[in-house]
Write a structure and sequence with these properties.
Shape: globular
Oligomer: single chain
Number of helices: 3
Number of strands: 5
């Protein structure tokens, strides 16, 4: 996947969904994000997941969104609290 595809997906998360994040790691086809506004994001997760393009999502043991695919890119979400 091209860098432009990653950039478009990140822009969509930031602009359309209001997700505030820091990119922690970029791997081929996989981006790990540290979410800065996790509490706000968790409050509208169900609405986010019904949007077009969001696929194959998983939850962590606390029943918070852990990962999903958007435009063929896997995103893993970490809260800033768990990043040491």
């Amino acid at each position: 996947m091209k860098q432009q595809d990653f950039s478009n997906s990140l822009r969509l998360l930031k602009v359309k969904y209001g997700l505030r994040f820091v990119v922690s790691k970029v791997l081929p086809g996989h981006i790990v994000l540290i979410v800065l506004n996790r509490k706000a994001f968790d409050s509208f997760t169900s609405r986010f997941l019904t949007d077009e393009g969001i696929k194959d999502y998983t939850y962590d043991r606390d029943e918070k969104l852990a990962s999903f695919y958007l435009n063929g890119v896997k995103f893993s979400l970490l809260g800033k609290e768990g990043c040491g």
